[in-house]
Write a structure and sequence with these properties.
Distance between the termini: 41 Å
Number of helices: 6
Largest sheet: 7 strands, mixed
Number of domains: 3
Strand order of the largest sheet: 2-3-4-1-5-6-7
Radius of gyration: 20 Å
Length: about 350
């Protein structure tokens, strides 16, 4: 089974033209399944709710997604911030649906120019027809199939966005597998609590499975885990491996950052300049960390109020925001840990 996660900003009506609604929380999810030559092919649309008032659900959708879909109903500050968000998340493939509000008009040339200016020149304009959109999304899936397969072999990282106790099953954690493969009976580490756990059983798409891979939204039934080891933003990974007899040494997939050097790529739409003492927010792998800039003399140095965990290999870009800025997103960053 191959899954393509799509971050969408647009109407519920357009999302339902593409896929069937499955969940309605801070992010609304919609799923469409078709048979493929090598098994089912899943389109999973992740649509943040409560925009523009709340920006964190948008960050969560972007963290899980590989491609994007934006329905453009007008050119305004909100539209500009959405472009900045997708570009800063590195989502360079996606679909554009221009659908002016009733009685309104949108200049298509201006829209396409703004996408290009934001760094999203590789996106494709489509109609609002659900069948056409599904076809184009499957083409995008095919175009990144090698990346989707490679992600399954990477180190395991599963950010958790829900957890609860189920009668007869016990503690269950739910999240998107960002990278790697998770199997029944796997031993786990739950960060940042650094608590242990074992996979009792797994569910994907309401089906019991023996493994879940990158792209899957998975329910993990846990044993040997305390509920206080889980919270919104917890990360499930495999433990480190040290076997001197076999000469095997595999570190944890995540590095713990209390202070970081940040290399910021500022959005072309963002005019604000960051200075020492400013508070910034970092979003990556469903974490939303608050930091303060210590200095900018030798690169930007940030200390975090609580630790930020960054993948050791193939780390995604980190979105940097300032919630009192307009737009709120400063741009994307790569970060390196400071001792």
């Amino acid at each position: 089974m191959t899954v393509l996660n799509i971050a969408m900003v647009g109407s519920d009506e357009l999302a339902k033209a593409i896929a069937k609604a499955t969940d309605q929380r801070d992010v609304h999810t919609y799923v469409h399944k078709e048979a493929g030559d090598s098994g089912p092919r899943i389109l999973s649309v992740i649509r943040p709710a409560k925009l523009p008032d709340r920006i964190r659900p948008l960050f969560n959708a972007l963290c899980a997604a590989r491609v994007g879909l934006i329905e453009v109903t007008g050119i305004n500050a909100e539209f500009g911030e959405i472009l900045v968000a997708f570009a800063s998340a590195g989502i360079d493939k996606g679909l554009i649906v221009i659908n002016a509000a009733e009685g309104g008009w949108v200049d298509e040339d201006q829209v396409m120019g703004l996408f290009k200016q934001a760094g999203l020149g590789g996106w494709t304009q489509c109609s609002s027809d659900g069948i056409e959109l599904r076809g184009e999304l499957y083409k995008l899936m095919d175009s990144i199939s090698a990346d989707l397969e490679a992600a399954k072999s990477a180190s395991l990282v599963v950010p958790i966005d829900q957890h609860f106790n189920v009668k007869g099953i016990g503690l269950v954690a739910i999240g998107y597998v960002q990278s790697g493969t998770l199997k029944v009976h796997d031993e786990l580490r739950l960060m940042p609590a650094d608590g242990p756990g074992t996979v009792k059983s797994l569910q994907v798409m309401d089906d019991d499975v023996t493994e879940a891979v990158a792209g899957d939204r998975v329910g993990i039934a846990l044993r040997n885990t305390k509920e206080e080891h889980l919270s919104g933003g917890s990360l499930v990974i495999h433990p480190e491996v040290e076997d001197n007899n076999k000469g095997i040494s595999i570190p944890l997939a995540l590095e713990k950052h209390e202070r970081s050097r940040i290399e910021l790529t500022q959005s072309p739409f963002q005019k604000r300049i960051l200075n020492p003492g400013d508070v910034v927010h970092a979003a990556v792998d469903l974490q939303f960390a608050v930091g303060r800039i210590e200095s900018i003399d030798d690169g930007m140095i940030v200390s975090w109020d609580s630790p930020l965990f960054i993948r050791r290999d193939d780390a995604p870009q980190v979105l940097i925001a300032q919630l009192d800025s307009k737009p709120r997103i400063m741009g994307s960053a790569s970060v390196s840990r400071l001792d």
